[in-house]
Amino acid sequence: SFETILFAIEDGVATLTLNRPQLMNALSSQMRREITEALTTLPPEVRCVVMTGAGRGFCSGQDLTDRSVATSVEATLRDEYEPMLRAMTDCPVPIIAAVNGVAAGAGANLALAADVVIATESASFIQAFTRIGLIPDAGGTFVIPRAVGNARAMGMMLFAEPVSARQAVEWGLIWEALPDEAFAEGVAARARHLANGPTLAYRAIREAVTQSTQNDLDSQLALEARLQGQAGSTRDFMEGVSAFLEKRPATFTGA
Ligand code: T3D
């Protein structure tokens, strides 16, 4: 069992809640290890993960009270942040970041590493790093310029100002911003949708979209053919086509 996160599974949805609300869910070493462990040991019934934060914030990034002077920042990134980010990008099922409040520093980039980011309208995203003399990490320099272009990425990173959830949607940084009162039910509906969907197709989509940043068109078309070959041999594909022809909703099992 975990001490810094809550982890609960219901109807195929695993909810991972960062749970140090007194520090706006700052990432301690233990929390990074617990997130990594939770995501790499998901039971097979889990078909969607929701990551969220306890209290009024999502995550304030590196716990600035947890730094041992002896540990180098480089080693922390390599040994703890990178495995955590990898556990997200290698996760066999889709991850929704449900950004319930401010997401700062590595906390913002943790959210942006999810497949889908849904924020409450009062949330914001802050590349806070330069305020303390650091550079964006936890994948931020990879994801952000690709999502919003260099002009906005550089502005976010150099000025370290909060970007509101609505602005983040307008810029294409996140999927959706919901009014605070509709947030919990909106996230739950999206999670149910994914947990009842064609899980193997979702995984292949993530792979194709990830590879597209490196591939030329020929390689990407070849990759699509290979991944579609996999999707086309799933039971979910047979079911999807049968359901369409029989004019009924499909029942996907993730196989
Ligand atoms: O190894 C390495 O260091 C490399 C890795 C670096 C990765 C990084 O993430 S570096 C960036 C670290 N994060 C930050 O610099 C953000 C720091 N926090 C803030 O800027 C603000 O707290 C927030 C914008 C997140 C929220 O502001 P606000 O006004 O809503 O809340 P608050 O009052 O500032 O915070 C509430 C409490 O949480 C407060 O404690 P207190 O006064 O009630 O005892 C505050 O000190 C604490 N807290 C917030 N963020 C952190 C934190 N404590 C430790 N670490 C934090 N990151």
UniProtKB/TrEMBL annotation:
InterPro entries: ClpP/crotonase-like_dom_sf, Enoyl-CoA_hyd/isom_CS, Enoyl-CoA_hydra/iso, Enoyl-CoA_hydra_C. It holds the Pfam family ECH_1. Belongs to the enoyl-CoA hydratase/isomerase family. This is Enoyl-CoA hydratase/isomerase family protein. Gene3D superfamilies: 2-enoyl-CoA Hydratase, Chain A, domain 1 (3.90.226.10), Lyase 2-enoyl-coa Hydratase, Chain A, domain 2 (1.10.12.10). It comes from the Bacteria. It comes from Paracoccus fistulariae. CDD domains: crotonase-like (cd06558).
